[in-house]
Amino acid sequence: MLMDLGLRPIGIVRSCFGGKFAVPRQPGLCPSAWGELHLHPEFRHADGLRGIDGFSHLWLIFGFHQTAHEGWHPTVRPPRLGGNARVGVFASRSTYRPNALGLSLVRFDGLADDPADGPVLRLGAVDLVDGTPVYDIKPYLPYAESVPDARAGYAADAMPQLEVRVDDAAAAAFGSLDARSRAVIIEALALDPRPAVRHADHGRTYGADLCGVNVKFNVEGAVCHITAIEHPR
Amino acid sequence: MLMDLGLRPIGIVRSCFGGKFAVPRQPGLCPSAWGELHLHPEFRHADGLRGIDGFSHLWLIFGFHQTAHEGWHPTVRPPRLGGNARVGVFASRSTYRPNALGLSLVRFDGLADDPADGPVLRLGAVDLVDGTPVYDIKPYLPYAESVPDARAGYAADAMPQLEVRVDDAAAAAFGSLDARSRAVIIEALALDPRPAVRHADHGRTYGADLCGVNVKFNVEGAVCHITAIEHPR
């Protein structure tokens, strides 16, 4: 009666999020965040995507490949509860699950034709780290899946956002980035990517790998200060 | 870089749908359809479900266990296109997918405590056949996942429904069923469970395994006639 299911990825995500730190905790919160889904050779049929351009949003079922080896816990501490209160893993969207599957609603920005990789899906508002393996794409069906008045317990509302400021010392480097990268950085840091459990982090500098640069920042109260933009060597 | 993921079920669904014929093609369309998710022993922690009662809707990621062995096709013929036009499998919710994973938004009607099986999740508006293996439960997050104005191409609206009538010959047997079973039967048949590709089926009698009885029906125009209710021996 049981079914142990072996999954193979159909493709891989390329995105503006170079590391898992500062990836938004849910999709849709960082509208400028971009990604591309490159299909593996077996799935590069234009046929398999026929009609997909009629949909504005897609579901991706993907793997939490960076944390899957760490196993799971019956309870987790969601960031929005301050990292203190515990809830059950099945009442959370934590990555530490019995089966390391993620579910993400992404904006579908159309198909591009890549000379090497065939049809590539351009995605927006993603919460997926670069390199994420994808197992399925499904169209979003608003008549069945949009339930605006659903009750969502402790996760009813989006979390409050930080104000993001660019320090004078970082202004020139920040200003030299393209507009989309600047928007991704502002939106991602506004979501406060710091770990929920913090011990006297006042003044601590964090680094986030966003849009190909390392963004240094610290947080004071409700304000996030970008202190430096470092380019990889 | 790839991740071949081995999944093990966390539980199994018991539902009013005894066979895959007449299972609604999407969740939410048959509000009276009930199910129960019974967790496997390893996952019967009350801890793992802590806080889940704050949510009115849950995602289930499950396996298409009845069709998984049939493999997949790059294109499929969705029922709502009359079974003639083909769309890509990734532009559809067909069960014949490269990875046989289903995604279903279900109503969460609370926990029951089963003497043998521990905490059982009571579910509503399900589109899951009895015996479906479940790999993950995730809470529904309306602030991120309710997009009422999403474009959904050929699947923009729910399909037109049939009017369901109970023939005189079946009235007594139908009337002896409990109210919930009667509602499930009416709602499920109104969705027109017949295969999309039909060849001169006028007058053909179908049988659907619903709520423990076999419901015989035929369809004339936009009217579904229940002709008999048969109890299993």
Gist?
The structure is a homodimer of 233-residue chains. Chain A is mainly beta and 233 residues long.
Characterize the structure shown.
The structure is a homodimer of 233-residue chains. Chain A is mainly beta. Chain A folds into 2 domains: 11-145, Elongation Factor Tu (Ef-tu), domain 3 (Beta Barrel); 163-230, RelE-like (YaeB-like fold, 2-Layer Sandwich), CATH 3.30.2310. Chain A has 3 helices and 13 strands. In chain A, β7 and β8 form a beta hairpin. The longest helix of chain A is centred in the last third of the chain and has 12 residues, at 179-190. The first copy, chain A, is globular and about 50 Å long. At the A-B interface, β1, β4, β6, β7 and β9 of A face β1, β4, β6, β7 and β9 of B. β1 of chain A pairs antiparallel with β1 of chain B.
- Quick one: which chains have the greatest interface? A-B, 78 and 78 residues
The CA-CA distance between the termini of chain A, in Å, is 54 Å
Gyration radius over CA of chain A: 19 Å
Question: Major sheet of chain A: size, sense and barrel closure?
Answer: 6 strands, antiparallel, barrel
**SSE arrangement of chain A, N to C:** EEEEEEEEEHEHHEEE
CATH H level, superfamily name of the largest domain in chain A = YaeB-like
Oligomeric state of shown chains: homodimer
Please tally the helical runs of chain A, counting DSSP H or I stretches of 4 or more residues: 3
What overall form of chain A do the CA principal axes indicate? globular
Report low-confidence residues of chain A grouped into runs of 5 or more. none
Structural class of chain A: mainly beta
Neighbour order of strands in the largest sheet of chain A: 2-3-8-7-4-9
Strand content of chain A: 25-35%
* CATH architecture name of the largest domain in chain A: Beta Barrel
Helix content of chain A: 10-25%
**What's the number of structural domains of chain A?**
2
Q: Write down how many β-strands of chain A occur, each being a DSSP E stretch of 2 or more residues.
A: 13
